[in-house]
């Protein structure tokens, strides 16, 4: 292909290469964002009424996006989460909020409803507090409240709550996502790609006014989302299970829990996720975890070493995680002490959504080679830490993806040398 980064770096085209991918969200075109903003909101207050014109625009946008990923050196492409409505220039939540449109049993709380009191935990009774009560946000309240600080949270979120039995109603929307990516793959001669889908534990972080317990709520979401997972896999695509809650929830528990209590807190979420993907071929399942894509200090993030063994209990063939931002880059060393299941691939982030600085390709190559030396190059797919769409300026995002492609080519050349 014209402009292939392997040719740029002098790597023979027949040489096996380090594969590259993204963590999902990529910058939407201004036209697509504007078209999304123009959609009518249904009576429920959060479902967007799509039009034939919008669907046609989205389909063409995915085709253009897939080609642009390939030109940047991305070898395992996605749809950029274009089927998940993003209506603001900085939107950190579309990966999650899209599920509201695909799930029955939700409703917006009354406009005059008082916000719930922040939950407090006790030993053996770990509870999620409110978003605004995160320990990181509380500790750095001055920075988060200062518009000149450069600390970004995106648009203020609004979440519905569960008010009835949950069920999946997104067949038409996931069908459109699959069709759009499939057409783009066909147009570019590709044979595989991936779509992202919300994991039950992350989905269940909205309020629950129906189920008797948090556990019942999580398992209900597992039964909902398994329909989407199956549809993606049956189409021959990889499903990426987005589950930041596995690591990120640590910061949303006050006071800070013990490691043992937090691991117990994760048990239901892991079991429910395994239930939701039961019967799916693991080679078509990718787990994505992160510590939240908001731009902030993240000093209260949990260390990966405390939960890595639990993550590997999830029946996925690929594990995507942050390994490039300055709070978590050092954790590549954790994988030296892990017995990776046979056939499993690591998908480390080697460029970050958390900085406007574009990583040098040589640094990207160094990061890739760290993992290749531990698990073998065939078991590494180089990626982004988290979604880039809505987190950094589009021009910067695409520069980062080109650096990712070039860095993978340099790593390939070194491995071949």
Keyphrases for this structure?
417 residues, alpha/beta, TIM Barrel, 8-stranded parallel sheet, 3-stranded mixed sheet, 14 helices, 13 strands
Describe this structure in words.
The structure is a single chain. With 417 residues, the chain is an alpha/beta fold. The model is unreliable at 1-16 (pLDDT under 50). The chain has a single domain (5-416), classed as TIM Barrel (Alpha-Beta Barrel), CATH 3.20.20. The chain has helices at 5-8, 30-37, 52-72, 94-97, 135-139, 141-144, 171-188, 200-203, 214-234, 245-248, 259-276, 308-311, 361-375, 394-416, and strands at residues 19-20, 40-41, 48-49, 77-78, 103-107, 161-168, 193-198, 207-208, 238-242, 285-288, 318-321, 345-351, 381-384. The chain has an eight-stranded parallel beta sheet.
Compile the SSE list and pairings.
Layout: H1 5-8, E1 19-20, H2 30-37, E2 40-41, E3 48-49, H3 52-72, E4 77-78, H4 94-97, E5 103-107, H5 135-139, H6 141-144, E6 161-168, H7 171-188, E7 193-198, H8 200-203, E8 207-208, H9 214-234, E9 238-242, H10 245-248, H11 259-276, E10 285-288, H12 308-311, E11 318-321, E12 345-351, H13 361-375, E13 381-384, H14 394-416
Parallel strand pairs: 1-13, 4-7, 6-8, 7-9, 9-10, 10-11, 11-12, 12-13
Antiparallel strand pairs: 2-3, 5-6
Helix pairs in contact: 3-7, 7-9, 9-11, 13-14
Question: What would a concise description of this structure say?
Answer:
With 417 residues, this protein is of the alpha/beta class. It contains 14 helices and 13 strands.
């Amino acid at each position: 292909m014209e402009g292939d980064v392997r040719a740029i770096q002098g790597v023979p085209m027949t040489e096996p290469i380090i594969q590259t991918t993204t963590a999902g969200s990529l910058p939407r075109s201004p036209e697509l964002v504007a078209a999304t903003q123009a959609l009518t909101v249904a009576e429920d207050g959060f479902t967007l009424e799509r039009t034939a014109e919008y669907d046609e625009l989205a389909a063409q946008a995915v085709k253009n996006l897939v080609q642009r990923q390939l030109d940047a050196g991305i070898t395992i492409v996605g749809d950029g989460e274009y089927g998940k409505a993003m209506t603001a220039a900085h939107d950190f939540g579309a990966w999650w909020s899209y599920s509201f449109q695909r799930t029955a049993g939700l409703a917006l709380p009354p406009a005059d409803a008082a916000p719930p009191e922040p939950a407090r935990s006790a030993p053996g009774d770990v509870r999620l507090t409110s978003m605004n009560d995160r320990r990181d946000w509380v500790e750095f309240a001055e920075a988060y409240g200062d518009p000149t600080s450069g600390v970004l949270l995106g648009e203020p979120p609004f979440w519905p709550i569960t008010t009835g039995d949950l069920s999946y109603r997104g067949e038409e929307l996931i069908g459109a996502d699959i069709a759009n990516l499939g057409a783009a793959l066909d147009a570019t001669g590709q044979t595989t790609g991936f779509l992202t889908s919300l994991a039950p534990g992350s989905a269940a972080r909205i309020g629950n006014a129906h189920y008797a317990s948090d556990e019942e709520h999580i398992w209900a979401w597992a039964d909902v989302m398994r329909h989407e997972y199956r549809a993606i896999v049956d189409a021959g695509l990889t499903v990426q299970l987005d589950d930041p809650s596995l690591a990120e929830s640590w910061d949303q528990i006050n006071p800070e829990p013990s490691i043992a209590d937090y691991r117990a807190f994760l048990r239901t979420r892991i079991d429910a996720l395994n239930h939701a993907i039961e019967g799916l071929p693991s080679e078509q399942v990718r787990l994505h975890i992160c510590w939240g894509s908001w731009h902030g200090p993240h000093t209260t993030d949990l260390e990966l070493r405390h939960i890595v063994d639990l993550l590997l209990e999830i029946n996925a063939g690929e594990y995507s995680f942050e390994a490039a931002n300055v709070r978590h880059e050092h954790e590549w060393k954790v994988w030296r002490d892990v017995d990776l299941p046979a056939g499993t691939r690591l998908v480390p982030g080697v460029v970050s959504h958390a900085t406007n600085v574009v990583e040098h390709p040589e640094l990207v190559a160094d990061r890739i080679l760290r993992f290749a030396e531990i698990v073998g190059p065939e078991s590494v797919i180089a990626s982004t830490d988290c979604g880039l769409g809505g987190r950094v300026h589009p021009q910067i995002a695409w520069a980062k993806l080109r650096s990712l492609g070039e860095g993978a080519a340099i790593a390939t050349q070194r491995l071949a040398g």
